[in-house]
């Protein structure tokens, strides 16, 4: 596999108000964001040179930072404009944008109230996260031993870097066992999400999706709910136990990186890529490729 490291690429990255050469976009090893996970980020898709739902992503970045008790020194609108500049400078037609904000190096302790908040925006060409999975069979999931935490234990409605640690561990374990990703339950044992995508399950022709009360209510998730309702599908947001998977006929994942990805198996239970999943894929593709 020919992997191009992300710190050794051509192009530019917007960092703290300036375009800098890609390889020079660096932060210090004693950054608070690295040691204490005081960092938030956004992932955004570029379709035909346009960033999908750019305003929604920008506002969420600021909300996430506020939940971690720091303030981003640029408005959401300023960062939206900077994002468009990066996409144009990189010449990306279809790809991915990463905005990230983190506390710097002034204080290296739990308390970091006087640390500078840094912001960077990068963009690169990137296909679907599950591009290596079979489009005809869908991705294979295995339930993780790790669970999404209670809102009393973590700022689970923020897109915070630290919340993804157990996702990485879960996905690594699943991949070692031949799966594409992990299904995560929440702290109560309800179905929650995959490691980086929300989940939808079809039961008796209705679309069921877990209530996002302890994990991120994804922007793609919200988009798909709107598209499904516009088609006349019944969408039910509720708590679901993993035992209910036995009654499921179709499953798909949603997310900026995953887009709309069908699931072909969870813990040995097989699913067809049915009509509802195919319709949601088609509707989403049509929406993101609408002329701006």
Domains, number: 2
Overall mean confidence score, pLDDT: 95
Which of globular, elongated, flat, extended, rod-shaped describes the shape?
globular
What do we call the CATH homologous superfamily of the largest domain?
A: D-amino Acid Aminotransferase, subunit A, domain 2
What would CATH call the architecture of the largest domain?
Alpha-Beta Barrel
Q: Say how many strands there are.
A: 15
Distance between the termini: 36 Å
Summed up:
With 292 residues, the chain is of the alpha+beta class. It has helices spanning 32-36, 54-67, 76-90, 165-176, 219-230, 275-288; strands at 12-15, 18-21, 39-47, 50-51, 95-103, 117-124, 139-148, 181-186, 191-194, 198-203, 206-210, 235-238, 250-255, 259-266, 269-270.
List keywords for this structure.
single chain; 292 residues; alpha+beta; D-amino Acid Aminotransferase, Chain A, domain 1; D-amino Acid Aminotransferase, Chain A, domain 2; 2 domains; nine-stranded mixed beta sheet; six-stranded antiparallel beta sheet; 15 strands; 25% helix; 30% strand; globular
